[in-house]
Amino acid sequence: MIRIFSTDEPGATTIAIDGQLVGEYVDAVETCVQQAVGQRKPVHVFLRDVSDIDEHGRTLLSRLATKLVELSASGIYSSNLVSEILRR
Q1: Which architecture characterizes domain 2-87 according to CATH?
Q2: What is d(CA 11, CA 41) in angstroms, rounded to the nearest whole number?
Q3: Which whole-number Å values give the CA distances from 61 to 22, 39, 57, in the listed order?
Q4: Structure confidence at residue 71 (pLDDT)
């Protein structure tokens, strides 16, 4: 299960994710991020309450980081993963 919340503000779009970033859910997140990026303003992806991230999800997060999408997370698991991705 996944929940994707998008908050569109004048200066940026924040996409908060709860649940599992696995399988087909990764595609839903990618679609949401692509739509936000298309608005030509900064995008912040916040892994708020994510309990599992598979290899497909990790690949997406790495790709987003190279597109200058801001990544952040709460929780030890997600925070460590985001830190690892940003160090690369």
Answers
A1: 2-Layer Sandwich (3.30)
A2: 7
A3: 12, 19, 6
A4: 98
Strand partners, 13: 8, 43
- What are the pLDDT digits (tens) for 40-74? 999 999 999 999 999 999 999 999 999 989 999 99
**Per-domain boundaries in the chain:** 2-87
In terms of C-beta density within 10 A (0-12 exposed, 13-18 middle, 19 or more buried), how is residue 65 classed? middle
Please choose, from the candidates 32, 27, 66, the residue with its C-alpha nearest in 3D space to the C-alpha of residue 46: 32
* 12-21 per-position pLDDT tens digit: 999 999 999 9
With b for 16 or more beta-carbon neighbours within 10 A and e for fewer, the 40-54 pattern comes to eeebebbbbebeebe
The DSSP secondary-structure symbol of 73 reads E
